[in-house]
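Q: Is it fine to ask for two folds in a single conversation?
A: Yes, each is treated on its own. Send the first.
Q: Here.
A: Result:
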Amino acid sequence: MNLPKIGMRNIKTTLSVFLCLMLFDLISRENSIYACVAAVICMQNTIVDSLEKGVSRVLGTIVGGLVGIFVLFIVSEILVVNEDMMVFIIPLGIILLIEICVMIDQKQAVVISCVVYLSILISKNRDGGYVLYTVNRVLDTSIGIIIALLVNKYVVMPERLRTFLNSSTNKNQEEKPSAVELKKSQDGEEEADLNKKSDDNQER
C-alpha cells in the first residue's frame, strides 16, 4: 500500500500554525486561534500567490474589524440592542462586509473579513471595550498572515529530501503496472487457458 505524498504546502501550513502557537505562548498572549486560522487560510502554493492573498487578507482583516466596530457601536451606543436581537443583526453585517469587499475589488478578502467580524460580534467577553477588543483581533489575525508569508518565502525543502521523495515516487510508478499492462497480462492468461483446454480436448 502506497502512502500519499506529503507536499510542501502541507508542511508549511503545519509549521505556520506551530509558530503561531509558539509565539503566542512565549509572549503570553491569548486567542492564538485567530492567528492560526489566518495562517491556514493565507498559505498558498507559491510565495507570489501568498503575497497577493496576504495583502488581500490584511485588507479583509481591517475591513472586518471596522465593520465590527461600526456594528458594535450601533448596537451598544445608539440602539442599545438586547443580546437576543444580535442573532438577527450579525447576519446583516455579513451582507455589508461582502458588498464592501466586492466594491473595493477584494473578493478574496471575504472569508477572512467575515472570520474577524464574527469573532468580534459573537464573543461575549470584550475586555477593555469593543474598540480595543477589535484592534486585538485584527492584530492577532495579521500576525498569522505575516507568519504564513514568511514561512512560505523562506522555508524550502532540502534538495536531498526532494531528490529522495522524487525517486521514491518514480520507483513506485515504475513498479505499479499500468492498466494496459494488466489488460495484456489478463488476455495472455485467458489465451493460455483456452489453448490448454483445446489441447485437452484433442487428446480426448
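Q: Second one now.
A: Result:
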Amino acid sequence: MSKKVNKKLVNIHRGVAGILTPLDIHNKEFRKGFRGYSETEVDEFLDEVVRDFETLIRENAELKSHLEEVEERLAHFKSIEETLNNTLIVAQSTAEELKASARKEADIIIREGELKAQKSLEEAQARVRRVQEEYEEIKKQFQVFRSKVRGLTQAYLNLLEEEEPENDDATRVAIR
C-alpha cells in the first residue's frame, strides 16, 4: 500500500470522537529523519496515544462506575419487584382467606337464622295447637254448661208446672 492510501485509511478509521483505534496505531508511519524516525513526530504521536488512552481509561472507568450504579439500581428495583410480587401474592391469599371466612360466617349466620326461624315456627304452631285445644275445651265446657242450664231450666219449668196454683192460665201467661 502506498503512504497516501495508508494515511487515508488512518483518517477513515479514527473514531467519531477522534480517538485512536488499534488499526491507527498499527498503520502509523513515521518519516525517516537524519538519525531514523523523526523524534518530534514520534513524540507527538505518542503524546496523542497517551492522551487518547487516558481518555479511554477515564471513560472506561466512568462507564464501569455508571454500570455498577445501574446494576445496583437494577438489583434494587428487582428486589422491589420481588417484594411487590410477594406482597401481591400475600394480599391475594389474604383476600381469598377473607372471602372463605366471610362465606363460612355467612353460612353460619344463615343456618342460625334458619334454626331460629324453624324454632319460632314450631313454637307458633304449638301455640296454635294449644289455643285450638283450649278453644275445643271451652266449646265442650260451653256445651256442657248449656246442657246443664237447659236441664236446670227444664227442671225449674217442670217444678213450676207441677206446683201451679188454680189459676194456671194466668200464671202461664205471666211466665211467658
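Q: Anything structural to flag on that second result?
A: Two points. The first strand starts at residue 32 and ends at 33. Strands lie at 32-33, 36-37.
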